Amino acid sequence: MDVDFSIELGRDDPVLDFPWTDTAGRLAYVDLKRRPELMARIEEAKKYPELGEFLRTVNSARSMVETAKCDAWATMELSAEEEIHDVSHKFASYVDVVFSNIDMRSSVSAHEQFARKLVELLRRTPEIPSSVEVCVRRCYFGDEGGVREGFYCTLYVSGYGNDEPSARQNWAVGLKLVGNAMVQLSAAASTFS
Fold it and tell me: What are the domain boundaries of the chain?
């Protein structure tokens, strides 16, 4: 499994408003951490049960994070870096996560430690045709007290294969490994500052 992380805090890098609503008002943040019964509202989880399982794991009481957004897709467009897999198909997803502990949300150091440790754990996994990228980015947390600046992580998981079913299967294995690693990191949450 190819695994890496990046810190993306530049002016042109992606940011997240949390909680969020799309401009058309059709889609909005769903609090799966506190209201797991709302999983049925997540279209991607219905379409891709593997993603639904990942969302349940990451939003469980055992996890130090909660999800904000997600998507999954199949493609035959591979970047130059992905050509090392010598395949024709990719199945990919992203999941944005925030720390459940509100105080940790403003610590770039905690996010960087989380990303580093997640990468370290995942590098110990068996070699499979999957990749994971963890991106630390800027987040604007809104509540009744106004907007506070902080951070979040985007988790990109991709699986590769010579057809869509094999790429999806390798993606599902990658998701499972990431979910397990995040629960394992959460058990050691006191090491983050």
Answer: 2-191
